[in-house]
């Protein structure tokens, strides 16, 4: 699986939803912007939290979009590995499988 292709395909498919349900998508966009803006917790930390939740919830799309954002924010492989250990701790064996996917996404986005 290519996380670059996955995120591109999801974005394309969301365009249809945006056209059909503009208010829902606008609301989700506002929720995302509000939740992820820096405050007492900085933006990078919030992205790290979102990635850990995405792994624990077994969401490949979440992994792709949050790893992509974190690579742009300068996430290191060491940060990713520590984060994945917490996600695995919280989500058990299934999260371990998705932690491996997050590592693959990181490698793909850092190479791009």
From TrEMBL:
Gene3D superfamilies: AhpD-like. Pfam families: CMD. InterPro entries: AhpD-like, AhpD_core, CMD-like. Residues 22-103 form the Carboxymuconolactone decarboxylase-like domain. This is Carboxymuconolactone decarboxylase family protein. It comes from Vitreoscilla massiliensis. The lineage of its organism: Bacteria, Pseudomonadati, Pseudomonadota, Betaproteobacteria, Neisseriales.
């Amino acid at each position: 699986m290519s996380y670059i292709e996955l995120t591109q395909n999801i974005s394309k498919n969301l365009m249809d939803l945006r056209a059909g349900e503009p208010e829902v998508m606008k609301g989700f966009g506002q929720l995302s912007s509000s939740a992820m803006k820096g405050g007492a917790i900085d933006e990078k930390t919030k992205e790290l939290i979102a990635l850990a939740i995405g792994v624990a919830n077994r969401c490949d799309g979440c992994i792709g979009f949050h790893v992509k954002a974190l690579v742009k924010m300068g996430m290191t492989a060491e940060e990713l590995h520590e984060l994945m250990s917490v996600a695995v701790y919280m989500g058990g064996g299934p999260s371990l499988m998705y932690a491996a996917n997050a590592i693959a996404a990181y490698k793909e986005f850092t190479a791009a």
